[in-house]
């Protein structure tokens, strides 16, 4: 009798055949262009840490 | 490196766009979102067997009456009575087909990796946890349909004094006296933040509160004693919780609670790898035992608060040593004793040496491997470009965003996308780890049982599985399933069994 293996009902991103973003590799050691990074950082809500309240964990 | 390893990570959760957030309810909803993804996980819901856990057992050979956290637990229990949910419903435990445990711990979604024996597997499994939670965030936000936006962070603090843990676990030989473990491991763990710290903006303890100070470690503010069984209050550098989840006559589980949550795969692998090598040294009676810190707690905090690494560590007797040289003492002992003991060991030794040399030469050169340096570099770039001060609340918001599990938002994910951080595993290895257990530990048996027989499972623990077999249960103990030959027997049995009855004919079990 074959294995009774259940499969997921909903699609999750890892099910897609997608282009691999990369694996182990050396980074670009030259001075990075920070334009995109800065653009992304500017979009972060300056007050999100003030609203971020957690219960103590372990 | 053939030591059995595991990581438990509590994630932080919030909801943007609403007036108040019930973090417990959100954590429960987030975990349950995963039952929509993988039906076998749904079939394991609330089957975790808490009766086999006893966090009051102390590795020093006694059982404590109370933990300090028992008071918090009691308070939360009263609050949670209003939810009209049972203890099991609040915990919402799931066991996944990769052998992992995923549940609500207090108010944090917690992902505990399956047991792994290679660094590649443990990092792939840790990253698989991030991907699973990222998918749960997506599904939860679809459920909310605009009534707030859930965000989840793999970090360890809310910046005002509430910390939650990332614990790394190591199976080790119980014959090593615990006093020896304390003495040998303490200086290493105090300085391990050099390679494994995740970086933080701000000091959270009241006496030194300083929102603008950049620290190496997220967690160093929260440790106040050298040795203790507690994990939520008066946290210790060496935790003595004695829950081996294995044969307690042979094994100890070294439960290290002092680590930060790593986003960097290389930093995570170094954290696990170097600690495992130091435990090797302890087991082989080759660990440096002549390093004694004058004040380990003070050293932990002062090191964390000086990312320039100029602050020396004070030893008993007044002699000082640089934190890099202190790490080199352990590295030298490991190189002498362990070099050539496998690819993982040699990778750890070479990378450890390189990172320490690079930190000494030019801290910034480690921004491609170490979280705290990558974050410090990001924030410094922002401060210089925008002209904001280090105590601007925006900096803590950016710190938090470094840990956002959504790869289209998180700042660490942006570094990955730009190719400025080194990888240790491939995306394909992470994708496989979401479903597949590591092949060479007892987690394979657990994960495959979930995949094939979840409906018949009646309870699950790290070291035990129970199946409903009329008129009662059949219990498979996994207390001694660690050596390669025994693991192979159990794993082949589950692979070859078309049903539970056949499985039970192949492995030892008890009826109850």
Could you characterize what this model shows?
The complex is a heterodimer of chains A (58) and B (512). Chain A has 58 residues and is an all-alpha fold. Chain A contains 2 helices and no strands. The N terminus of chain A is likely disordered. Chain B is an alpha+beta fold. Chain B has a 6-stranded antiparallel β-sheet, with helices on one face. Chain B has a 4-stranded antiparallel β-sheet with strand order 17-18-19-20, covered by helices on one side. The two termini of chain B are 38 Å apart. At the A-B interface, α1 and α2 of A face β2, α3, α5, α12 and α13 of B.
Major β-sheet profile of chain A = none
Fraction in helix of chain A = 10-25%
Approximately how much helix is present in the residues of chain B? 40-55%
Beta-sheet strand percentage of chain B?
15-25%
Straight-line N-to-C gap of chain A = 46 Å
Question: Can you count the helices of chain A?
Answer: 2
Structural class of chain B: alpha+beta
- How would you state the average pLDDT of chain B, rounded? 96
Task: Give keywords.
heterodimer, A: 58 residues, mainly alpha, 2 helices, 21% helix, disordered N terminus, B: 512 residues, alpha+beta, six-stranded antiparallel beta sheet, four-stranded antiparallel beta sheet, 18 helices, 20 strands, 18% strand
């Amino acid at each position: 009798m074959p294995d009774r293996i259940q499969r997921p009902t909903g699609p999750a991103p890892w099910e897609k055949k997608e282009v691999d973003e990369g694996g182990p590799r050396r980074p670009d050691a030259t001075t990075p262009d920070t334009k995109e990074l800065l653009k992304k950082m500017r979009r972060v809500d300056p007050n999100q840490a003030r609203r971020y309240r957690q219960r103590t964990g372990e | 490196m053939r030591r059995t390893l595991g990581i438990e990570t509590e994630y932080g959760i919030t909801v943007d766009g609403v007036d108040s957030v019930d973090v417990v309810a959100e954590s429960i909803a987030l975990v349950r979102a995963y039952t929509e993804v993988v039906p076998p996980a749904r079939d394991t819901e609330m089957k975790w067997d808490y009766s086999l856990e006893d966090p009051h057992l102390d590795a020093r050979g006694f059982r404590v009456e109370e933990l300090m956290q028992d008071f918090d637990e009691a308070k939360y229990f009263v609050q949670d009575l209003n939810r009209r949910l049972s203890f099991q419903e609040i915990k919402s435990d799931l066991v996944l087909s990769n052998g992992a445990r995923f549940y609500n711990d207090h108010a944090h979604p917690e992902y505990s990796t399956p047991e792994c024996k290679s660094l590649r597997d443990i990092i792939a499994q840790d990253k698989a946890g991030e991907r699973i939670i990222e998918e749960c965030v997506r599904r939860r936000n679809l459920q909310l349909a605009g009534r707030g936006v859930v965000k989840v962070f793999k970090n360890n603090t809310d910046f005002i004094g509430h910390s939650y843990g990332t614990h790394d676990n190591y199976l080790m030989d119980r014959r090593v006296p615990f006093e020896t473990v304390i003495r040998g491991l303490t200086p290493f763990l105090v300085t391990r933040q050099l390679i494994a710290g995740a970086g933080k903006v701000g000091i959270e303890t009241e006496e030194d509160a300083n929102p603008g100070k950049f620290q190496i470690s997220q967690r160093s503010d929260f440790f106040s004693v050298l040795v203790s069984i507690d994990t939520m209050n008066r946290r210790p550098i060496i935790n003595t919780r004695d829950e081996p989840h294995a044969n307690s006559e042979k094994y100890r589980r070294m439960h290290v609670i002092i680590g930060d949550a790593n986003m960097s795969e290389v930093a995570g692998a170094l954290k696990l790898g170097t600690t495992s090598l130091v435990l090797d040294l302890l087991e082989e009676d080759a660990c440096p035992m002549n390093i004694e810190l004058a004040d380990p707690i003070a050293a932990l905090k002062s090191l964390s608060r000086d990312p320039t690494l100029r602050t020396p560590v004070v030893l008993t007797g007044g002699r000082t040593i640089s934190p890099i040289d202190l790490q080199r003492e352990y590295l030298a002992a490991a190189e002498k004793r362990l070099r050539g003991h496998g690819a993982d060991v040699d990778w750890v030794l070479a990378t450890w040496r390189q990172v320490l040399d690079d930190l000494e030469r030019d801290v910034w050169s480690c921004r491609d491997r170490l979280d705290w340096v990558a974050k410090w570099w990001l924030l410094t770039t922002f401060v210089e470009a925008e002209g904001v001060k280090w105590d601007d609340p925006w900096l803590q918001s950016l710190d938090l965003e470094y840990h956002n599990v959504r790869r289209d938002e998180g700042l660490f994910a942006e570094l990955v996308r730009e190719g400025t951080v080194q990888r240790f595993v491939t995306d394909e290895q992470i994708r496989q780890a979401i479903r597949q257990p590591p092949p060479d530990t007892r987690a394979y048996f657990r994960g495959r049982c979930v995949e094939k027989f979840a409906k018949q499972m009646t309870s699950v623990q790290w070291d035990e599985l129970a199946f409903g077999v009329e008129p009662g249960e059949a219990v498979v103990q996994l207390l001694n399933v660690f050596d390669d030959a025994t693991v192979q027997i159990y794993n082949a049995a589950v692979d070859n069994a078309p049903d539970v009855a056949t499985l039970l004919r192949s492995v030892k079990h008890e009826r109850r």
